Amino acid sequence: MMELxxxxxxxxxxxxxxxxxxxALRHENAGVWLxxxxxxxxxxxxxxxxxxxxxxxxxxxxxxxxxxFGLPGLMCTIxxxxxxxxxxIDIYGPRGLGTFLRTSLSVSASxxxxxxxxxxxxxSDSPSCEISLxxxxxxxxxxxxxxxxxxxxxxNKWQICESAGxxxxxxxxxxxxxxxxxxxTEDSLPGKLDPTLLRSMGIPPGPLYGKLKRGETVLLEDGxxxxxxxxxxxxxxxxxxxxxxDTSNSETMLPAVKDVDVIIHETTVENELETLAVxxxxxTPGMAGKFxxxxxxKMLIINHFSQxxxxxxxxxxxxxxxxxxxxxxxxxxxxxxxxxxxxxxIVSIKIPQ
Amino acid sequence: MMELxxxxxxxxxxxxxxxxxxxALRHENAGVWLxxxxxxxxxxxxxxxxxxxxxxxxxxxxxxxxxxFGLPGLMCTIxxxxxxxxxxIDIYGPRGLGTFLRTSLSVSASxxxxxxxxxxxxxSDSPSCEISLxxxxxxxxxxxxxxxxxxxxxxNKWQICESAGxxxxxxxxxxxxxxxxxxxTEDSLPGKLDPTLLRSMGIPPGPLYGKLKRGETVLLEDGxxxxxxxxxxxxxxxxxxxxxxDTSNSETMLPAVKDVDVIIHETTVENELETLAVxxxxxTPGMAGKFxxxxxxKMLIINHFSQxxxxxxxxxxxxxxxxxxxxxxxxxxxxxxxxxxxxxxIVSIKIPQ
Lengths: 353, 353
Fold this sequence. Notes:
Two copies of one chain form a homodimer.
Chain A lengths: L1 E7 L13 E6 L3 E5 L5 H7 L7 E5 L5 H4 L2 H8 L9 E7 L2 H11 L7 E7 L26 E3 L6 E7 L2 E8 L5 E8 L8 H6 L6 H7 L4 E2 L5 E2 L13 E4 L18 E5 L7 H6 L5 H10 L4 E5 L5 E2 L10 E2 H11 L3 E4 L5 E3 L5
Parallel strand pairs in A: 3-4, 4-5, 5-6, 6-7, 13-14, 14-15, 15-18, 16-17
Antiparallel strand pairs in A: 1-2, 1-19, 2-3, 8-9, 9-10, 10-13, 11-12
Helix pairs in contact in A: 8-9
């Protein structure tokens, strides 16, 4: 199971119709990982199927308030759940994240009831954030250590973490402030059993199928030894998911990122406003569609809409424009599947056949 | 016009049914003043009649997240409005508030488009907040100066500000962390005209009435000189409004606070849970009613309900308890008018006759 739950799909600020940025990734092994955490995320979570207590990693693309300001409140509310004693949340994002969280939780005297650790992505050649990140600073009682620093591993690329069969990398994106996009790559999946071959060899369906699928050699009652390689196809490529932060140029991820299952790309405003969009560090559906084609994506999900765009199914009054316009513009530039995000939409990412 | 707009009436965290703490005071001369600013306040404002651009003062009772974490986002969103060039917001609250706001706005590179100034209420004999408040710290570009410090003027009392015919004082309240209640005292109002007397003297209704009411001497066409004191009653006492933060003991305000028009008192849980409530720094309706009687209040508004209590008009399922229970318990201990707050409720405070 690998599901995307869109918890906030609006840009700039949260509104009653569209929350500020947050996407939850639910995965059978990984639990729940959040991507961005705008103000009101904890309210959106209460309206969703996602359980806050299951969150164990939070990835922040950049430190603008509409992607960040829900984090301290969410951290406090997670602590209201019945949590295992060893509960820990790892949080990844640009430099300054640790200070923001420590200050917020300290002045509010928040007691979390679990541990957290911040890992900061550091630009290689830019001045550091003006907020002091002194390692002598007094930690919050639930903070495991001062922020760990993640340095660039290749041009524009940071290796973020590997956990539960998923690898996460970050890539630099052009925006008004330092911003990254996250690429989540699933480990190879076991090959598929060939049931026709199995039946022709007289092997009955049952627990033996599971053993072979897991790569175990099987001894049949008649003495035959069955090697999984003779019956199971080659390992299959895991799914690849790209979740971008705000950007006026995602091509900074090229050529490293290619052949992905799903890309979530911001499309803050329509194509006609491209000059303004780029000036402010944002993208249009045309730009998102073009990039999805360049990286050979199977599915493009457009996201992060100016609050002026009404939801897909709204009744429109004169002068109203809806996300339908953005969706159609994206489809003009990308021949794969295109989906428009919306608050509480769930997209299931299937294993490719 | 003096109106209270309840924007968030829930305790601990914001929910889809009940926002985190925030009350807006609308006043004909003062504009809009906010009291506390929990996460999601800017979303609640969008659902209300209160215009964010009119906010010019924000008072924070204490730094717990459910009273504070909406502040940075609200500050950013206020900047999206069309504001006068000299726009400025003054923010009052406990020590640590300035650092929280500066850190939040700085790491997020927020540009407000107006100025703000933080005034910190300092306890006299307790250690300062562990967050550094170094006056050399780099200010946010929209910050007017490092936090001004407001020191205790009398035992348990701080003189906060005087503006637009309203005086604000803060009083110490017992709670889990440093917390105050605010007392808003309106200047004396002009006396009322005696229309019967005016008619008997042959003075026709019209602009002369206004002049007399404003305290101006009037020369009639027939040569008579009318002094306002002969026609206008004595100045009337202005309205007094008390807005408390969270507390397990509001009697720390005695004997200074007395004879008030409206008191807003937290009643987090029902009377049966008083021991637990006090342990956690909170009050019950019984405690609120008793205090409202002690200070000779005309009206008690109960507020800040545990999210377990359903709204007054909800359909209850088995096991549900609604705010009705809290309201009835408060009425048992207070003979004046009792009102239960609810999100988006508006209470108009009339000039006493």
